[in-house]
Amino acid sequence: MPRYAMIIDASRCIDCKACLLACRQRNNVPQGYSRNWVHPFPDAAAPLGLHFQPGACMHCDDAPCVRACPTRATYKAADGSVRIDLARCAACGGCIEACPYNARYRHPQTGLPDKCDYCAGTPDMSPACVQVCPMRCRAFGDLDSPGSPAAVALAAGNPVQRVRPADNDTRPTLAYVNGTAPLDWPQSRPRPLPLEAMSWVAGAVTVLGGVSLAGCAAVLLKNRLAPPTENDTVSRGDRHDHD
Q1: CA distance linking residue 29 with residue 64, whole number of Å
Q2: E-assigned strands of the chain?
Q3: I want to staple 15 with a disulfide (CB 3.0 to 4.6 A). Which of 52, 55, 111, 161 is the partner?
């Protein structure tokens, strides 16, 4: 199983916004919303006096959005990406609130959360933002494959930085090489009490459902191993006659 990740060399970015436009077009992102971004920061050493930092979902190994989801619609996939199972989503917005990177938005038509999924579903699993970048700021690939662009970028010996909230090591898999501007990410926020309660209720429902299924299975197994005898049938018939 591959272990996908994105590596960004922010020193190359010229803020052309090709990555934003390509992402919106491929993923049908509504006008006024975005799955990725380019943040400008003052930098006296830069030619234009600005440092541009591309970014998107960090696909964290310890993702707050996964922990915040009461229905387990948001999950960490085996390939390293953080995904959303929209069929399970209750549209509570807990994952949006929990993300310290502001990498999610609520879709204005469906009310469901949306985010970068590395353009999942494309034949070659190649994100649009990576394909169109004229400066090759972004590299993507399987970290366990030494020849993949992401693995090569990490192995080049350049300084590597992963952006973490001050109060929570989310273990982001998206990494920056060749330096990155210091970012003032929002700190992690606790889940609102209603969402916390929803998680407990969802867990209780799961347990009760399992108990019910186990009871049904036990009855079926009993009938298979010890089917009703003729005397049992007669006895039940006698009881009906007396009634």
Answers
A1: 23
A2: 4-9, 37-42, 50-55, 74-76, 82-84, 105-106, 113-114, 138-142, 160-161, 175-177
A3: 52
Instruction: For domain 4-177, give the CATH number.
Output: 3.30.70.20
> Helix count (H) and strand count (E) of the chain?
7, 10
Give the single-character DSSP code of 28: T
What is the residue extent of each domain of the chain?
A: 4-177, 193-242
Q: Which of 98, 112, 120 is nearest to 2 (CA)?
A: 120
pTM for the full model?
0.76
Q: How many CB atoms within 10 Å of residue 108?
A: 10
- C-beta of residue 149 within 8 angstroms of C-beta of residue 140: yes
Residues 157-177: tens digit of each pLDDT: 899 999 988 888 899 999 999
- Taking a C-beta distance cutoff of 8 angstroms, is the pair 53, 10 a contact? yes
User: In degrees rounded to 5, what are phi and psi of residue 188?
Assistant: -60, 145
Residue 210: CB atoms within 10 A of its CB come to 10
At 84-121, the pLDDT tens digits run 999 999 999 999 999 999 999 999 999 999 999 999 87
CA dihedral 20, 46, 172, 68 (to 10 degrees): -60
